[in-house]
Write a structure and sequence with these properties.
The longest helix has 54 residues. The protein has 2 domains: 82 residues, no CATH class; 167 residues, no CATH class. By secondary structure, the chain is mainly α. Helix content is 67%, strand content 3%. It has a two-stranded antiparallel ribbon with strand order 1-2.
Length: 275
C-alpha cells in the first residue's frame, strides 16, 4: 500500500520496434520513483539499446534514468535526515561517478607508464652517449699521438685523419623523450654535415695540407663533448646517477672541453665578415 501523500508513477511499456519487445516509458514525475526502480529501468534500457537501431535516443533515456536515480537517492536521504557524508557515499556508489573514477584511474596509469618508458629510454640513450664520448676521446688522443711522430714536410701525404665514432641512436627510444632532447639528438647528423663544410673551407684556404686534419680532430672532440652535455641533461631530467659513479670516476672530459671551446672560437672567427 502506498502511504498517503506519496506521489506514484506508473511505468508503462510500449513497443518501440517489433524486435525489441516492450520498452519502459518514464513520463513526468519520474524522479519520485524509487532510485532502485529507476536504476532497474536504466539497465533494461541499456540492454535494449544494444539491439536497437534507435540506439542514441535510448542511450539518452538510460542516462536520464541514471541521473534521476542519483537525484532520487539524494532526495530520499535528505528526507530521512541523512547527512551530506551519507549522500556522498550514495553518489559515489552510482555508476556515473564510478565511470568517472575509472577514467581518471586509466589516465593516471597511462601517465605513469609513459614516464617509466621515458626513464628506461633515457637509460639506454645515456649509455650510448657515454660510450660515444669515451670513443671520441680515444680517437682524438690516437690522432695526436700518431701525428706527433710525423714530419709535416715529408709525411704530409700520409697524414692520419681523425674519424667520428659510430653513434647508433634508437628511434624507438627517441619517441619517449621530450621534443627538446629528441631534437638535439637527431640534429647531430646535420651538425656533422655542416662541420664538414667548415673543414672544406679550411682546406681550401690553408697552405698547410696537414692543418685541416688538426681541425678535424678538434671537431671530433667538439661533438664528443656535445654528446657528453646531452647525456648530463638526460641524467638531470630523469634523476639518474652521474657518469662513472660505479667505478669511482668523476672525469668531466676536460680534453674534450678544450676541443669544444677551441672549435667554437674558430667557427666564430671564420663567421665574422672581413673588414
Amino acid at each position: 500500500m502506498t502511504p498517503r501523500g506519496t506521489k506514484t508513477l506508473v511505468v508503462t511499456w510500449r513497443r518501440a520496434e517489433p524486435s525489441l519487445g516492450r520498452v519502459p516509458c518514464l513520463g513526468p514525475g519520474a524522479f519520485s520513483l524509487a532510485p532502485s526502480a529507476l536504476m532497474a529501468c536504466a539497465l533494461r534500457l541499456q540492454k535494449i539499446s544494444q539491439r536497437s537501431s534507435n540506439e542514441p535516443r535510448l542511450r539518452m533515456c538510460v542516462g536520464r534514468c541514471q541521473v534521476d536515480a542519483i537525484q532520487g537517492s539524494a532526495a530520499a536521504a535528505v528526507s530521512t535526515g541523512l547527512g551530506w557524508g551519507d549522500i556522498a557515499k550514495i553518489v559515489l556508489a552510482s555508476g556515473v561517478v564510478a565511470a568517472l573514477i575509472g577514467w581518471l584511474k586509466d589516465w593516471f596509469f597511462k601517465i605513469r607508464d609513459r614516464r617509466l618508458d621515458a626513464r628506461f629510454a633515457a637509460v639506454e640513450l645515456i649509455a650510448v652517449l657515454d660510450l660515444y664520448a669515451l670513443q671520441s676521446r680515444r680517437n682524438v688522443r690516437d690522432y695526436h699521438e700518431y701525428a706527433a711522430s710525423l714530419d709535416p714536410h715529408t709525411d704530409y701525404q700520409n697524414w692520419p685523419s681523425c674519424a667520428y665514432p659510430d653513434l647508433d641512436i634508437s628511434r624507438d627510444a627517441l619517441k619517449y623523450l621530450d621534443s627538446k632532447h629528441a631534437s638535439a639528438l637527431v640534429s647531430i647528423a646535420t651538425e656533422k654535415a655542416l662541420a664538414n663544410q667548415h673543414l672544406h673551407a679550411i682546406h681550401d684556404a690553408s697552405f698547410d695540407p696537414t692543418e685541416v686534419y688538426g681541425h678535424e680532430a678538434e671537431i671530433v672532440g667538439y661533438f664528443g663533448y656535445e654528446v657528453y652535455l646531452l647525456a648530463n641533461e638526460l641524467r638531470k631530467e630523469y634523476k639518474l646517477p652521474p657518469f662513472g659513479q660505479r667505478w669511482g670516476v668523476t672525469d668531466e672530459f676536460p680534453d674534450l672541453l678544450h676541443s669544444w671551446q677551441k672549435t667554437k672560437k674558430v667557427v666564430l672567427t671564420r663567421s665574422q665578415p672581413l673588414s
